[in-house]
């Protein structure tokens, strides 16, 4: 007699007359991981306290002079000296600046940046000019000292150039006259040693700031646009919220019609986008400069420039056309499965209708995530500013002590100064040699890892809570009488009381994969300049593999939390049961579940599209009715993008509840098919609409 072969993906669920939904009599699961998570969180709090006691955010806020003092810090002698002045800005052009992030020149705090061109030799001959010049010199400078003595001791700069403050640092006020770079309206300047130099020599010292200056101007314009349009942006987001709520209410009563209307509207909205792009593309034909390519144009801070070239609209049109074709093809091939998906969405609408407080749960998740993000950000800032000032020897000529650590208090009388007369002891960076400073990088890594773990834990808690609430709806024989009075709160209590360990276990696995992906991105950034093609190929393959692995783990975790919420088993057992259940119904999973996800995505796309089109016509002034109402903006795309992104987040918040409901009902629906057969003793608990689509029906009860 041959042994009966064991099913590849486990035995189907057996009928259990006592099973009525989420198990009430359950015990704690994954206790070891729960204890580990609690210890890790306590350690995270300890790291935060340690960082707050050692860190000093002023190092980020205030510029630091050559003695490590903060410019403009309240309650110090430098309170009124808010700007940082460089003795010789041309030394900032040294390649060493890119390695050490510090110019090898004296830096000091001043009240105002220099407003006129002047050399020390010239200022020395006039008392008034010398008094002005001393504002940019170290303390103790007098006219009794000779110019060579002042310069040899590094007490004053050899020259002053007209400068303007940027990020509280004095940079030369360079101009352009007749295509020639000027400073103080002159193309040449005296460097203080009697040599005349071109103004363009100053460019290398400040060129690293030009991109930042342009970015600053862009940020200021964007900020001004927000101040002019913030209330209209809020109105747009409120409209998005109302449309999302209306959409969910209509789904409750008109799920079938709404899905088909939604599909039609999405196709029409994208179709209009293609038409609009074509009209803009055709309208620019023949315009001067419209045939310039995006590559030739390069990066521009004024993004409206890109809308004046034909290639931009052609790219938009091609992208929208591809999206349109893909959606239409998917609808053609999946038209039969859409009917089952509609029935599932109808049932999800009823479930959400019976558990209305579930729509507010994303707000709770948002608050918890905001706390986690804020704690991580504050701790990261304090950790990164908890170093001590390190001073090093900077020199212009060869010196054996170059870049050696030094003490500025007694450097002028030290042997290093005697051996290298032209050297200076300047503030280099923040660091330290204590045990705390040696392990600072480890603490930063711990901060990032715990951020991922806590954030994933919060997300997992939301998934398990909603899964438990919606599972209690599905398995209730008489709805809503057999449901708990407060299904969301009941499920939240069970999740925290019994399954904190399972939540921590699942989120730990996901966090490890995410931290590996972060390390791979870091390595990729470091190897960008490398020529090793094989290393780049291997790294690219690893990034792709871990991206796929993260997606799979998220999918597995989500379904495992549903099984934990229903049966109260540990994470591994629940993950195995969920995986086997899905594998036993592979065709339904591959098609039906993804079709519902696709339909919900179309819903989000529709809401974003409607609000986005309205925002475009309003803020761009294309409609005459809105010309006087719309605010005057530098970039009308600023409020439009803000409204579009905000609308997507709002729609995603509402539809994430729907998605979790659909996933939970889908697993329950698969179990229902395995547990029951439609007989009077084992009737299906799925709704009648779903039974009709699947050609399933419950047999009539026998006469009593």
From TrEMBL:
Keywords: Antiport, Cell membrane, Glycoprotein, Membrane, Mitochondrion, Mitochondrion outer membrane, Phosphoprotein, Transmembrane, Transmembrane helix, Transport. It is a multi-pass membrane protein. It comes from the Eukaryota. The chain crosses the membrane at residues 29-52, 230-251, 257-275, 313-334, 359-383, 448-476, 496-520, 598-621, 633-651. Pfam families: Choline_transpo (PF04515). It is found in: Cell membrane; Mitochondrion outer membrane. GO terms for molecular function: antiporter activity. One of its GO terms (cellular component) is mitochondrial outer membrane. It catalyses: choline(out) + n H(+)(in) = choline(in) + n H(+)(out); ethanolamine(out) + n H(+)(in) = ethanolamine(in) + n H(+)(out). Belongs to the CTL (choline transporter-like) family. PANTHER family: CHOLINE TRANSPORTER-LIKE (SLC FAMILY 44), CHOLINE TRANSPORTER-LIKE PROTEIN 2. Choline transporter. This is Choline transporter-like protein.
